[in-house]
């Protein structure tokens, strides 16, 4: 890079020529410095005056002091920005004040903030890839050698007889299986739940407290077509022995035992292994043991089989599910509320023990369902509890100050 200058000096001042060549070869270009100044430079664990010094070197008199001041303030903590914005000091004076504020408030976190939108997209992609990977690992395919060996070892008549025998066994099990049910125990409450994939709606037995809450709008049907009266809904968090808990909203019905049906199994990706008395979580490749029962299938459904709309509703099971789960939207439309000024906040207010228990339970359920998440931001709005029927409460948010 500098061999031509060393071999043949062309001027009487070789030092200046060599210095100019080295700077031009190894220093960053002007576009790189501007890009670093605008986006790549962060505060980290250095002093605020050190950050300003680096930005001044990168600017190299190419950017006005007003623009440099704005870029520097944007990289400071929010509390420091609010103090320095109204100050008329020059940049060196602001840097000294900022260092003093930092000494009083303590050290800054060394972790920089990242883009929430990009993190959300990456997290969703990783979750989808992990889900596909687990699904693929769940399948086992016989090798080509084993298939060729099996085809050579069986005569046509033996193969046909075994196929017919297998079909007859499968038909017998599906038509009159009375021993293909399992019970699993909820470790939290001690209830034994019947697993019935032949029923479509998960139910919980009625208690004496619920008998006065008859829901005449919701009626379930048994396998023989008889009606089953319902008495509202109940959200339960089940600990079946898996690493995670399962939050589900059950329909309270006139049944003798709690039942986990096809809606619950399908949503959480659980598979029944009747032979080994296990309930398997395919996504996490873990299982829990149950115990076999001769209880026949209840066949509970929310639509009577003889109804003309039964086949149509079977195509859309989410319309009659008791638990409303959050799903990712199939579009890119978002709704935002434009705000100005400092964050809107509301002071904490005491709730009665009854209301406090309702609010804690409701927010815990929304967090487990993915509807909301804990936050450390300064934004907060008051909530109101409205009494509803069946001795229930509805939580409402007061966002009037946010939209003013």
Produce the secondary structure layout:
Layout: H1 3-7, H2 14-26, H3 30-40, H4 48-59, H5 65-74, H6 78-84, H7 91-105, H8 116-138, H9 144-153, H10 156-176, E1 181-185, E2 192-195, E3 203-205, E4 215-221, E5 227-238, E6 246-253, E7 259-260, H11 262-268, E8 270-273, E9 278-281, E10 286-289, E11 291-293, H12 310-314, H13 353-369, E12 383-388, E13 392-397, H14 400-403
Parallel strand pairs: 2-7, 3-6
Antiparallel strand pairs: 1-2, 1-11, 4-5, 5-6, 8-9, 9-10, 12-13
- Please tell me how large the radius of gyration is: 34 Å
CATH fold descriptor of the domain at 186-293: Cathepsin D, subunit A, domain 1
Q: Beta-sheet strand percentage?
A: 15-25%
The side-by-side strand order for the widest beta sheet comes to 7-2-1-11
Low-confidence stretches: 107-116, 140-144, 146-151, 153-179
Biased composition (Polar residues): 153-165
Protein name: Peptidase A2 domain-containing protein
Region (Disordered): 138-165
GO molecular function: aspartic-type endopeptidase activity
Architecture overview:
- Helix 4 (48-59) packs antiparallel against helix 7.
- A four-stranded mixed β-sheet has the order 7-2-1-11. It has a four-stranded mixed β-sheet with strand order 3-6-5-4. It has a three-stranded antiparallel β-sheet with strand order 8-9-10.
- The protein is 40% helix and 17% strand.
- By secondary structure, the protein is of the alpha+beta class.
- It has 14 helices and 13 strands.
- Among the domains are: 2-105, no CATH class; 186-293, Beta Barrel (Cathepsin D, subunit A, domain 1); 353-397, no CATH class.
- It has helices at residues 3-7, 14-26, 30-40, 48-59, 65-74, 78-84, 91-105, 116-138, 144-153, 156-176, 262-268, 310-314, 353-369, 400-403; strands at 181-185, 192-195, 203-205, 215-221, 227-238, 246-253, 259-260, 270-273, 278-281, 286-289, 291-293, 383-388, 392-397.
- A hairpin with a 6-residue loop joins strand 1 and strand 2.
- Residues 107-116, 140-144, 146-151 and 153-179 have low confidence and may be disordered.
């Amino acid at each position: 890079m500098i061999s031509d200058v060393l071999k043949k000096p062309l001027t009487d001042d070789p030092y200046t020529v060599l210095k100019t060549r080295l700077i031009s070869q190894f220093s960053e270009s002007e576009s790189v410095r501007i890009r670093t100044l605008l986006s790549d430079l962060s505060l980290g664990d250095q002093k605020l005056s050190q950050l300003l010094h680096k930005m001044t070197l990168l600017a190299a008199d190419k950017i006005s002091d007003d623009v440099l001041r704005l870029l520097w303030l944007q990289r400071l903590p929010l509390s420091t920005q609010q103090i320095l914005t109204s100050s008329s000091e020059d940049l060196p004076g602001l840097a000294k004040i900022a260092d003093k504020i930092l000494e009083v408030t303590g050290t800054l976190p060394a972790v920089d903030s990242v883009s929430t939108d990009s993190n959300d997209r990456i997290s969703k992609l990783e979750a989808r890839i992990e889900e596909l990977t687990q699904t693929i690992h769940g399948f086992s395919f016989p090798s080509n050698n084993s298939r060729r060996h099996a085809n050579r070892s069986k005569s046509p008549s033996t193969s046909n007889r075994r196929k017919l025998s297998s079909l007859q066994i499968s038909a017998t099990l599906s038509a009159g299986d009375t021993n293909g049910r399992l019970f699993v125990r909820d470790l939290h409450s001690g209830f034994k739940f019947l697993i019935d994939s032949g029923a479509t709606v998960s139910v919980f037995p009625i208690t004496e407290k619920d008998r006065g809450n008859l829901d005449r709008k919701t009626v379930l049907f048994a396998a023989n077509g008889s009606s089953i009266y319902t008495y509202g809904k109940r959200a339960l968090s089940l600990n079946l022995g898996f690493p995670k808990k399962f939050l589900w909203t059950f329909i309270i019905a006139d049944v003798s035992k709690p039942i986990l049906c096809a809606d619950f199994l399908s949503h959480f990706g659980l598979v029944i292994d009747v032979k080994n008395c296990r309930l398997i979580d395919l996504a996490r490749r873990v299982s829990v043991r149950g115990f076999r029962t001769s209880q026949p299938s209840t066949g509970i459904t929310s639509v009577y089989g003889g109804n003309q709309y039964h086949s149509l509703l079977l195509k859309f099971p989410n319309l009659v599910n008791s638990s409303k789960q959050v799903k990712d939207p199939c579009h890119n439309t978002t709704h935002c509320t434009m705000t100005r000024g400092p964050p809107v906040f509301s002071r904490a207010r005491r709730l009665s023990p009854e209301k406090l228990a309702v609010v804690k339970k409701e927010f815990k359920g929304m967090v487990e369902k993915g509807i909301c998440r804990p936050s450390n931001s300064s934004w907060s709005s008051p909530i109101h509890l409205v009494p509803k029927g069946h001795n229930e409460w509805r939580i409402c948010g007061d966002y009037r100050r946010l939209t003013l």
